[in-house]
Design a protein that fits this description.
The protein is α/β, with parallel strands linked by helices. It is 48% helix and 11% strand. It has 15 helices and eight strands. The protein is globular and about 70 Å long. The two termini are 38 Å apart. Bound molecules: 5,6-dihydroxy-NADP and zinc ion.
Length: 388
């Protein structure tokens, strides 16, 4: 049964080959000073930077830059961004990049006027912003996180070995996002499939929870089927527009809060993956892929019916003559084969995790209680051990 909820998603999307033109509609809504935030330079190589700057100039904007946002953006970089946004007296933060750049822009947006240590306030104490928030807009170049249409912001503190996400409210969602699937063509295959698995994991984290049957389950099964098909096509042909546009759109719907409405959610794959990343700085989607099979096999006995439904409705497993458990296990086996087939990293050793990190990774893993089994430290250790 669907629980009670409110739903509002205020982000305006411009999608398709001409999406960048949406900047001309959006920019006049904001003041003159634009803080242009981007990553390590991919946008300079593929020409997106030049196109964005041209439109900013044509709209009479004063451009201030904050470059070098790293994958898994750090609390130190966040402090630098706050200083840059203050110095620019920014009226708009324009994030041009992937989830890291968009997440970082949101973190800066709520921190500039907070008058407090941003890491402690938002990522340790999980406070909500009460200060003035600088509006954020995104030009998406990497697909996976859903950051373009949500309030999520994930920041890593290497000194404390913590990677923590704060899911902010609607006031922190991007005001607009520009989504041109062609902008993702230049992604290296490693990043493309990592993003694809991030999308899949977002859907599964919300699917594998609860024993009820609600509309979200059907939406998610459809999203998963579209994603699997499009991923197969994109791995063969990275410039297949239909596949890349479907992947981009699925990513947005996977984590723009819709499918979680009225139901419980799990999120332990993300908690495990984030703990691995806090110790290895590995690529987000790969950390999820690497812990997925051990985790799902661990919780399968507690949610067998849903795993069996998943096997049949998403992976076309034939249930005839099989027990529910057999069907559920076969579904995971088919999924595992598919994951290996598209090239995902299936263990944390390959991501740089070593056995001497185990205690620390266990310690860094936050426990969520919406899944089929609430893990204790011993369970977390067992799942991680099976992930090496
Ligand atoms: O930095 P540059 O040079 O731009 O290179 C990036 C980066 O190295 C590159 N890239 C991006 N677009 C490209 C490109 N290279 C070539 N062509 C392009 N068009 O890709 C690399 C990865 O980028 P990044 O932004 O780090 O990837 P992603 O979008 O996966 O974001 C990961 C971050 O988002 C967080 C993750 O934890 C991680 O910190 N997440 C955010 C969420 C949210 N806001 O709701 C939820 C997710 O679960 C996730 O936790
Ligand atoms: Zn994710």
């Amino acid at each position: 049964m669907l629980g009670n909820f409110t739903y509002c998603n205020p982000t305006k999307l411009y999608f398709g080959k001409d999406a960048l033109g949406g900047l001309n509609e959006e920019l006049p809504k904001f003041g003159k000073n634009v803080l242009l935030v981007y990553g390590g330079g991919s946008i300079k190589k593929n020409g997106i930077y030049d196109k964005v700057v041209e439109i900013l100039k044509a709209n009479g904007k004063a451009i201030f830059e904050d470059a070098g946002v790293m994958p898994n953006p750090t609390s130190e970089k966040l402090n630098e961004g706050i200083a840059r946004a203050k110095a620019a007296n920014a009226d708009l933060i324009l994030a041009v990049g992937g989830g890291s750049v968009c997440d970082y822009a949101k973190a800066v947006s709520v921190s500039v006027n907070a008058g407090d240590d941003a890491w402690k306030k938002y990522f340790i104490r999980f406070e909500e912003p009460t200060c003035k928030i600088i509006p954020v807009g995104c030009v998406l170049t990497m697909v996976g996180t859903g950051s373009e249409m949500n309030g999520g912001s994930v920041i890593t503190n290497h000194a404390q070995k913590l990677k923590i996400g704060h899911v902010f409210g609607e006031n922190v969602f991007p005001k607009f996002s520009i989504m041109n699937p062609e902008f993702t063509y230049t992604l290296p295959k490693y990043q493309m499939i990592s993003g694809i698995y991030d999308i899949m994991s977002h859907i599964l984290e919300q699917y594998f929870s609860g024993t009820d049957d609600n509309t979200s389950d059907y939406i998610m099964e459809g999203l998963l089927r579209s994603l699997i098909h499009s991923a197969n096509v994109a791995v063969e042909n990275p410039t297949d527009y239909e596949a890349r546009s479907n992947i981009m759109w699925t990513a947005t719907w996977a984590l723009n809060t819709l499918v979680a409405k009225g139901k419980t959610t799990d999120w332990m794959v993300h908690m495990l993956g984030q703990a691995v990343a806090a110790h290895t700085d590995a690529t987000h989607g790969m950390t999820l892929a690497a812990v997925t099979m051990p985790y799902y096999r661990f919780i399968l006995p507690y949610g067998t019916a849903k795993f069996a439904r998943y096997a049949v409705n998403v992976w076309d497993v034939n249930p005839d003559g099989k027990t529910e458990k057999q069907v559920a296990e076969e579904g995971l086996a088919v999924m595992e084969k598919w994951m290996k087939g598209i090239g995902l990293v299936m263990n944390i050793t390959e991501l740089g995790a070593t056995k001497d990190m185990l205690d620390g990774i266990v310690e860094s893993t936050l426990v969520m209680d919406g899944g089929y089994k609430v893990l204790d430290k011993k369970d977390i250790r067992a799942v991680l051990q099976a992930s090496f």
